[in-house]
Amino acid sequence: MASSSSIASLVSVKLNRDNYLLWRSQLESVMISQDLMKFVDGYGEAPPEMIARNDKDELNHEFTAWRKLDQLVLSWIKATVSEAVLGQIIRTHSAREAWVALEKSYGSPSPLRVMLLKKELMFIKKGNSDMTSYLQKVKFLVDSLDAAGCHTPSEDLVQIILNGLPSKYESLITSIVTSSTKMPSFVELYDLLLNQETRLQLIKNDVTESPMERQVTITAFNTIRGRGRGRGRGYYQGRGGRGRNQFLQPTQNQFNKQMTSVHPNNPSQPHHQQTTLPPKKIVECQYCGRKGHTAKTCWDINPRAFSALTLQESGDEYWYPDTGATNNIVASGNNLENKQTYSGSESVMVGN
């Protein structure tokens, strides 16, 4: 039989104003296993303390044995309540007396308490808590209302749980609501939501790029840019090539086609000559000697800085060869380091 010191290992919670049902369920299981429920449920009756024997009263040994067990159960009750609750039963002398006092205080919530429980259940949300904690919280509120005589139908319970889920569970919610079969029970919904939570976590882990994968991406980007001092005309230079094998990616909507100009005073007579724009100054890195960037943004100095690099414009999926033009016109100059705005009176037409 469990002693007062070992009861804590069998009843994992201490009674407070919010967990009466859980506490009672655990303690009842212990008392039933030891055949001691009769000391608290009112069905057991204590034997008389004294009995007449040989014309005189003597102490009844059955009463002594009963009282020992009754005090054992009372010690279990006192050992499994919080200090705030203990003050309410400190003067009780039997297990039944303490049990009834606690049932009156916590087993039947006040009307105000019932109203607060209903409001909390109506607006409960999963938030950042895990699925198990969320469902346990909902079940606790429902059980507390049920103990107060306010029964929650199974379909209403399922609807409350679904309403509290975040948007990433919308596909599962839709399939449940639009299903031709009846609403799942709480146990069935519990399994569905735990499986969905696990699945979403696996998907999140799959799409999360590891630091090693980011390093591989940046290394590939650096290889495309080139490591030599090539004299090609594009931004992406090879290892010393001279221009015809180099490529321009039109991430700034660059147009590497032949331009023809139209004189504003005689628009019917187009000039078939190439538009001349101011020469573009190409910067050279003071650290690695490569062109197209400065030491401030050099990969060789601070490779980690490029691990967070994000492009401001989405690039075209196609690559175009460098035509060899001395100047290029781009739609946006936001990504150019050295640029000059054309202020002349001539205009440009683009032809295929």
UniProtKB/TrEMBL annotation:
The keyword Metal-binding applies. InterPro entries: Znf_CCHC. Residues 258-277 are annotated as: Disordered. Residues 285-298 form the CCHC-type domain. The lineage of its organism: Eukaryota, Viridiplantae, Streptophyta, Embryophyta, Tracheophyta. It holds the Pfam family Retrotran_gag_2. Signal peptide: none annotated. This is CCHC-type domain-containing protein. Keywords: Metal-binding, Zinc, Zinc-finger. One of its GO terms (molecular function) is nucleic acid binding.
